[in-house]
Write a structure and sequence with these properties.
The protein has 304 residues and is an alpha/beta fold. Helix content is 38%, strand content 13%.
């Protein structure tokens, strides 16, 4: 943890390694942490930023999975299916989370059991260091979905929009304006598929129940690993290669590209009062966000 612990200031969190097989997520988070620490020696603007911001970095949530080279933790549980959140709409078979057993991927863990230690550690850290602040942004770094880098926001357990949808749209437009050549596809995760047990859904629901005046904007950076396979088809025959860039120059390019994103999001957290929609305009921003991401009819209770 770096920066100001005062709950009155905003906060930002960077996470990686929820899935042990996706080591590039840990490497991106570590590269961001190394950059911030190295700049402390000379960067006066970074000291100013940290005076007004709490910064939390958890580069490796699932060390056992990284050691074993598995998506799940050593108990065979997929940590991103392990939270006590039940999907309210149909989910893909197996992929959406199941209780069959750890010998199949996407295993949620035993019913009615406590969350796995790694999942609980992430949730505890977020509850203590992000949810206690009036405004927070988090980025959870993953890989393995498609040929495009995506920024997903909740929910995963339902197609309903999140309460902080106006702020998500404002952040998306800020990203479009401030990184004009970025190639991130920003969308709700439910647009691709829905799941049980998503940790960030659980934390958003926890934030709304415990301190509704506080805002958490959790993003999942889903790096498009199929692009690496497309450029180097031999990676298809490597379990690591399906989820990580194996060629050094390609890995360096990945780190450079995403470091710019993480730096911008940390600064956006500090300056959130300058870009978040004011209370009186939130319904307008909500309607615009519905038009951008939710084009099908929604129940009446989807309104802000």
């Amino acid at each position: 943890m770096l920066g100001n612990p005062d709950p009155a200031v905003p906060a930002a969190g960077i996470f990686g390694g929820v899935h042990g097989l996706e080591r590039i997520g840990t490497e991106v988070a570590l590269a961001a942490l190394r950059q911030f620490v190295a700049r402390l020696r000379w960067d006066a603007t970074l000291h100013h930023l940290l005076d007004g911001l709490r910064l939390v970095v958890m580069p490796l949530v699932n060390p056992g999975g990284l050691w074993l080279g598995t998506r799940a933790n050593p108990q065979g549980v997929d940590l991103m299916r392990n939270a006590p959140v039940q999907a309210t709409e149909p989910v893909p078979m197996l992929l959406g989370g199941h209780r069959i057993g750890g010998w199949l991927p996407w295993y949620r863990g035993p019913a009615d059991a406590p969350m796995q230690a790694e999942a609980q550690a992430l949730c505890t850290l977020v509850a203590e260091e992000l949810l206690t602040h009036r405004f927070a942004i988090s980025v959870d770094c993953h890989s393995g979905f498609g040929v495009v880098d995506r920024l997903w926001f909740p929910y995963a357990h339902t197609a309903r929009p999140v309460p902080m949808l106006p702020e998500v749209l404002a952040l998306a437009e800020l990203l479009d304006d401030s990184l004009p050549h970025h190639r991130y596809l920003i969308e709700p995760q439910s647009r691709q598929y829905r799941t049980h047990g998503d940790l960030w859904d659980h934390l958003v629901l926890q934030a709304g129940a415990g301190a509704p005046a506080n805002t958490l904007l959790p993003l999942t950076l889903e790096m498009g690993s199929w692009l690496w396979v497309k450029k180097n088809p031999r990676q298809m025959f490597s379990r690591q290669g399906i989820f990580n860039p194996l060629i050094e120059h390609r890995q360096q390019r990945v780190l450079r590209r995403h470091l710019a994103l993480l730096d911008l999001l940390v600064r956006a957290a500090l300056g959130h009062a300058r870009w978040c929609p004011p209370p009186g305009l939130r319904p307008l921003w909500h309607a615009r966000a519905l038009d951008r991401w939710y084009r099908t009819a929604l129940p009446d209770r989807a309104a802000p």
